[in-house]
Design a protein that fits this description.
The chain is mainly α. Helices cover 76% and strands 0% of the residues. The protein is built from 12 helices and no strands. Helix 3 packs antiparallel against helix 4. The longest helix is centred in the N-terminal third of the chain and has 30 residues. It is globular. The termini are far apart.
Length: 263
C-alpha cells in the first residue's frame, strides 16, 4: 500500500475513533478496513486538520453570505455545537462531572476516576449553570477568532487536541495495560512528525500563535501522560477525552491571545 493511502486510511480510522459523525459511504468503502496502529496515530492530527478545514470553509461561507458580524455569530454557534457533538457530548459531560466533584470538595486525583460523561448520571442543577457559562465562553472565543480573521485557527485547535488524544491513546490502559493504539515506542515520533508538519504549514498564517500552540500541545500530551501514569498506572478512554477537551479550551484561548488579525 502506498504511504499516502496508508495515512489516509489512518486518518479515517482516527476519525472513527474520535468523531461520531459518519463519513460518506463512498469514503467508507474506499478507506474503511484494517490499518496499523502507527498509521492511525499519524491520522489523529490529519483527522483534526480535515475537520478544521471544513469548519474554516464554513466560517468563510457564513461571513460572505451573512456579512462579517452575523456570519461570525452563526459560525461560532455551529462550531461550538460541533466541538460538543463530535463525541456525543462526552467531553463536555466529563468536564462538567469533574467540576461538580471539585465543588463537593473531592480532590482532583480522586475526582478523575469518578467522573462520567453520561448526562443521565450527572443530574445536578449546578451542571446547567456550568455548561451555560462554558458554552457562552467558547462561542465568544470562536466569534472573536472568526471576526478578526483567524478562521483557520480552528484547524490548529483540532489538529492539536486530536494529537494530544492520539499520544495518550498510545499509553497503556489503566485496567488492561494494553494501549488503545498499540504503537511501538520508537514509532510514536511519527505522530509528532505529522503534527509538526501541519503546524509548520500553519506557521506563516499565525507565527506567534502556532509556536505557543505547539508548546501547549506538547506539554498537554506529555504532562497528562505523566500524571495519569503516576497516579493511576495508565489512561482510560475518559481520561483521553477529558485531556482533548481541555487542550481544545487552552488552544482557543491561545488563539485569541496570539492569532488575531486586529488592525
Amino acid at each position: 500500500m502506498m504511504k499516502p493511502e496508508k495515512y489516509l486510511r489512518g486518518a479515517f480510522g482516527a476519525w472513527e475513533m474520535l468523531i461520531d459523525f459518519p463519513l460518506p459511504a463512498a469514503l467508507r468503502a474506499r478507506l474503511g478496513g484494517r490499518t496499523d496502529a502507527t498509521s492511525k496515530l499519524v491520522g489523529f492530527p490529519l483527522a483534526g486538520a480535515a475537520a478544521g478545514i471544513l469548519l474554516a470553509l464554513a466560517a468563510v461561507f457564513c461571513s460572505v453570505v451573512f456579512k462579517p458580524v452575523a456570519g461570525s455569530i452563526i459560525f461560532a454557534v455551529l462550531c461550538t455545537a460541533f466541538l460538543d457533538l463530535k463525541d456525543s457530548g462526552r467531553g463536555l459531560g466529563l468536564l462538567t462531572s469533574c467540576f461538580l466533584l471539585k465543588q463537593h470538595g473531592v480532590p482532583v486525583v480522586d475526582a478523575l476516576p469518578r467522573m462520567t460523561g453520561d448526562w443521565n448520571a450527572i443530574g445536578n442543577p449546578l451542571a446547567a449553570v456550568f455548561v451555560s457559562l462554558l458554552e457562552v465562553a467558547k462561542a465568544a472565543l470562536l466569534f472573536t477568532l472568526a471576526f478578526y480573521g483567524a478562521k483557520l485557527w480552528i484547524l490548529v485547535i483540532l489538529a492539536g487536541a486530536f494529537t494530544v488524544q492520539g499520544m495518550l491513546a498510545a499509553d497503556p490502559d489503566r485496567e488492561s495495560g494494553v494501549p488503545l493504539l498499540p504503537v511501538p515506542h520508537e514509532n510514536r515520533r511519527a505522530g509528532w512528525w505529522a503534527f509538526g508538519i501541519l503546524y509548520l504549514i500553519m506557521l506563516p498564517f499565525f507565527p506567534f500563535g502556532v509556536i505557543a500552540a505547539g508548546a501547549v500541545v506538547y506539554f498537554c500530551a506529555t504532562g497528562f501522560a505523566g500524571y495519569f501514569r503516576r497516579n493511576y498506572g495508565g489512561v482510560t478512554s475518559d481520561f483521553i477525552t477529558l485531556a482533548g477537551s481541555l487542550a481544545e479550551l487552552l488552544l482557543l484561548i491561545v488563539g485569541v491571545l496570539f492569532a488575531l488579525d486586529v488592525k
